[in-house]
């Protein structure tokens, strides 16, 4: 029987989702917990791969469990997992749906704070840049859905068959004080470090180090720049994953209102 697991995790202590030798990954921790509970190895397939130290406020993986179980697996798994990984739902699926290949949309949010705050250091990226030109950054963000080829915003474009991404949503939000920023983007797929590279270039436009025309030329020319300068991983969250047959709201409250923050879309 195939099951979909609806989870979330804080990624600052993990070397990403994907299991790899010599590193602690979210996948490896969950597989170890499942093996301990079910008394057999249970390989799991995630809906994507998050970078080291990147978070997921919504994530799905699937697993095939051969033997029926007559206990509360949700309870036991949450008890076995560390506090920074939570399982919200275990959903019995018909047929063999695929957590990665069947996803039709993934949404990410990237959080920035421009003042030093020890309570935000593991949740949001700190950039000491209080004079960011938010309108210029918003103009850069508005360009994204107009283009399809994101080859210039990828660390390894040649490993893909193509670098086309259908960006459906892109927006820039700010809090009332103007010292916290959220970049939101949704697409059918993303390339290696694409969002962090995009965020790095958007920040450069806000700092006056990159003109709007230069930013757009990266989308038009599709040439990898000499320096990519990806933004810090800490502020990045995989925030929603949608399937044709499964569209669950995120269970975490982090994105919508964090510590009383009301997010306002930046106006041009």
From TrEMBL:
Q: Per its database record, what is this protein's job?
A: Formation of pseudouridine at positions 38, 39 and 40 in the anticodon stem and loop of transfer RNAs.
What are the record keywords, sorted?
A: Isomerase, tRNA processing
Question: What is the organism of origin for this protein?
Answer: Pedobacter kyungheensis
Subunit-structure text: Homodimer.
Q: Which domain of life is it from?
A: Bacteria
Q: Which family does it belong to?
A: Belongs to the tRNA pseudouridine synthase TruA family.
Molecular function terms in GO for this entry?
RNA binding; tRNA pseudouridine(38-40) synthase activity
**Stretches of the chain forming a coiled coil according to its record:** none
Q: Which GO terms describe its biological process?
A: tRNA pseudouridine synthesis
Q: What is this enzyme's EC?
A: 5.4.99.12
Matching Pfam families: PseudoU_synth_1
Active-site residues?
51 (nucleophile)
Entry-linked CDD domains: PseudoU_synth_EcTruA
**Which intervals hold domain Pseudouridine synthase I TruA alpha/beta?**
148-244
Catalytic reaction list:
uridine(38/39/40) in tRNA = pseudouridine(38/39/40) in tRNA
Protein name as it appears in the record: tRNA pseudouridine synthase A
Chain sites annotated for binding substrate? 108
Q: Please tell me which top-level EC class this enzyme sits in.
A: isomerase
